[in-house]
Amino acid sequence: MTDDTLQTLDFERIRRALAERVATRMGEDRVRAWGPLPTPEEAARFRRATQEAVALGYRLGGVFDPRPLLERIRRGERPEGAELVEAAATLERAAELKREILAAGEGELARVAAGIGEHALFRRRVAESLDEAGEVKDDATPKLKRIRRSLNPLRERIIKRLEAVMDAHPEAVQERYVTLRRDRYVIPVRAQQQRQIGGIVLAQSDTGATVFMEPASVVPLNNELAQLRLEEEAEVLKVLAELAGLLAGDAELEATLEALAWLDAVRAAALLAEDWGLAPAQDGPPGRYHLVGARHPLLEDPVPNDLHLDERTRILLVTGPNMGGKTVLLKTLGLAVLMHQAGLFVAAEAAELGWVRRLEVDIGDEQSLEGGLSTFAAHLKKLDRILGSAAPDALVLVDELGSGTDPEEGAALAQAVILRLLEKGARGIVTTHLTPLKALAGRAGGLENASMGFVLEEFRPTFRLQVGLPGRSYALAVARRLGLDEEVLRAAERFLGEGGARVEELLERLERQQTELEARLAAAERTRREAETARGELQARLEGIERERAALLAAARAEVDRMLEEAHRQIRELRAKARKGGSQKRDALREVMKIRERTKPRPAAGTNPLPGLEPGMLVEVPSYRQKGRVVRVEGEETLVQIGQVKIRVPTAELRPRGEGAPRPKQAVVVESGFETELNVRGLTAAEAVEAVHDFLAEAVATGNSPVRILHGKGTGVLRREIQNFLRHDKRVERFHDAMPNEGGHGVTVVHLRV
User: Is 38 annotated as a binding residue?
Assistant: First the structure.
């Protein structure tokens, strides 16, 4: 892109906006020269880095520009210690920034940050040699340490010697204090009495009444102090020279400064995107420019417009009155392309932009007084250049094509230029006031009429782009609205001719239709949004109902768990009661069975009861794993006697015994919850026998057989005592050792009379 193009499209203001957002002078120098990048790949990398910077939000605080210091060092000038401390702090901050970016993951920022050096030697030597103010530390070198150890005692000796002189000649001393003149310690003496002390006068007061004298006895000590100071200064200069050499000779320094400048520019681009509400554009094929909600980023409260140029619409011919926003539209597209190719985000809700090889712009009145060219001549020179570079990957922006000369000749020339641009496949926007061009779009493929909206009743432009509709000039309508003489207006209409009047009438009709269609479209859009809002509300309500349902289910499950835990607690208490024997044992077992009945699942409502059940019929009760006899059928429940206990069970759960017995249409088999294996390992023989006794009682009551007693092999004592108990228990039908693969001699399987 040429500098003229950048200037015409106000890209310099984009540079200034970036410069306001950088943190370093290095970054400022970078963005003040910023412009379109050489390749699409470079621009895409910078955009990706900007997106990463928006997400990461890093800062470059604590970084200063060391380049002026480097230039002075390379010219042989001595650096100040404070400058070297600042340089070390900058390089330390750069290393911290590198670690921060690399920790965030891979990407364009990490790729650049990886080029930042550590500069460990320079940073370490600065920390060892200089304090925070840039003063050389006493222990920077052994020699400097020795010199400074000698200086303080020597100063004390000089001061004590001077105090002794003042004590010896109090009448000659003007005031009692020690000061420095010409870097030598002196005392104030009355001018008339200086001979009493003797020595060297180094200065005097403004009035001449006081002289600052170095007594003769102090001269050798001051000379020694001066020598030490010279040695100190030489050693300090040596330290500073060493540090300057380390900085200037650091091989990684240029790469670090380059990376910092680039990262600063990226951060400025990210801040600009946040402040201006910019969005990244997608790379499109050459000749494709699609922008949704595009606006001019440098205007306050601009009106957004959609812009589309592609193979179908190669040239957009925009007509309409002055001050309607045609020129702004040109600059909006041109600036979006420039910013995209500079790696910046663009002022649009969404955008897809092809890469532009040449951006040709002819906007504004640019008379060339030096070359003796008129506005029209300058216009023609630009048109010639534009036609020479026109191609499918070139973008052309021409304002007021054909103006500046006779309207008929200008219109003919403009038509020829547009047809030539279409023939060469160029893309672009052309604005004009010339009426004959409005009819060209119907005859030339790839050319599309457009106009900028204008509300005549309110006498104001809308700045809205209306594609497909040529614009009216509104000259006569505006003149009539402003009260121009009606006879003059009628004469103008006659001069306009029947064809011109028909064109204006047709355009007016089209405008009305366009307005009506836009109103209908807006109403449809409002209806769609309302439907979307209603749908969202319904979805939210449905989600709320689903959450409430889930909460109710969770509460129900919690209540069931609580009830089951309570039932288990009661069963444990009843088992303890059953161990006492007698009638309490029988009552406890009955209570256990009732609890199990209350807590077992019920069949679903509506289950058909089992047909053919009659009192006295023998049935199986799967939930208790026992047989029983029907006492009374009570609809969905049946009273069944199991041994000496009568219980109610769901009718659909029962299984009649015997051939030809009716079968339920639907049965529910529920586990009773009784564990059919008892583990007595670790108990004494007496404890094990008692546990087996209770275990068999509950097994008989719940109809579980066979059951397993896990006693282990060990010494065989538990097995022998338990099996001896089983031989004499009337509830036991038989017992035997388990199969070898199911525990063998360590498990006794017991079959009960149930």
Answer: no
Which whole-number Å values give the CA distances from 67 to 83, 86, 254, 389, 487, in the listed order?
11, 12, 10, 42, 75
SS (H, E, C) 42-85: HHHHHHHHHHHHHHHCCCCCCCCCCHHHHHHHHCCCCCCHHHHH
pLDDT per residue over 567-622, tens digit each?
767 766 766 666 565 556 556 656 665 665 565 555 444 444 566 778 888 888 87
List the Cα angle 250/254/255 in 5-degree steps.
110
Q: Residue 472's closest CA among 445, 507, 505?
A: 507
Q: Which residues of 366-387 are buried (b: 16+ CB within 10 A; e: fewer)?
A: eeeeeeeeebbebbbebbeebb
Query: Residue ranges of the alpha helices (H) in 616-746?
Result: 685-702, 717-727
Cβ-contact 402, 413 below 8 angstroms: yes
Question: What's the token pair of residue 348?
Answer: 């649009």
List C-alpha distances in Å: 231 to 148, 158, 739: 10, 19, 103
CB 686 within 8 A of CB 724: no
Rg for the chain, CA atoms, rounded: 51
628 marked ligand binding residue: no
CA distance 190 to 180: 17
CB contact set of 640 (below 8 Å; sequence gap of 6+): 619, 621, 628, 629, 630, 631, 646, 647, 648, 649, 654
**In 3D, which of 647, 735, 739, 750 has the Cα closest to residue 695?**
750
Q: Is 563 annotated as a binding residue?
A: no
The separation between CA 405 and the C-alpha centre of its own chain, rounded to angstroms, equals 56
Helix (H, G, I), strand (E, B) or coil at 311: coil
Would you state the structure tokens that stand for residue 75, as one six-digit string? 């010219």
Secondary structure of residue 300 in the 3-state scheme? coil
User: How crowded is residue 624: how many other Cβ atoms within 10 Å of its Cβ?
Assistant: 26
Nearest CA-CA partner of 430 in 351, 325, 327: 327
| Buried/exposed 434-459: b ≥16 CB within 10 Å, e otherwise | bbbbbebbeebebbbbbbbbbeeeee
Beta strands per DSSP E along 298-365: 305-309, 315-319, 350-354, 358-362
Full DSSP string of 97-166 = HHHHHHHT-SSHHHHHHTT----HHHHHHHHHHB-TTSPBPGGGSHHHHHHHHHHHHHHHHHHHHHHHHH
Tell me the two tokens of residue 118: 């550590």
DSSP calls for 493-536: HHHHHHHHHHHHHHHHHHHHHHHHHHHHHHHHHHHHHHHHHHHH
- Find residue 736's DSSP bridge partners: 749
Q: Tokens for 647, please give them.
A: 């219980």
Q: Are 298 and 13 in contact (CB under 8 A)?
A: yes
Distance CA 697, CA 67 (A): 97
pLDDT in tens, 517-567: 777 888 888 898 889 888 888 999 888 888 888 888 888 888 877 877 777
* Angstrom distances, CA of residue 441 to CA of 236, 394, 427, 444: 81, 21, 15, 5
Which residue bears the tokens 């094929």? 285
- What is the C-alpha to C-alpha distance for residues 750 and 723, in angstroms, rounded to an integer? 10
- Count the neighbouring beta carbons within 10 Å of the beta carbon of residue 519: 10
Is 322 annotated in a binding site? The answer is yes
CA distance 305 to 464: 6
The pLDDT tens digits of the residues spanning 183-204 come to 899 999 999 888 888 899 999 9
Which residue(s) pair with 737 in the sheet? Answer: 748
The pLDDT value recorded for residue 622 is 79
Q: Which two tokens stand for residue 734?
A: 């038989």
Q: Does 320 carry a binding-site annotation? A: yes
Q: Are 185 and 214 in contact (CB under 8 A)?
A: yes
- Please choose, from the candidates 279, 281, 284, the residue with its C-alpha nearest in 3D space to the C-alpha of residue 393: 284
Report whether 327 belongs to an annotated binding site.
Answer: yes
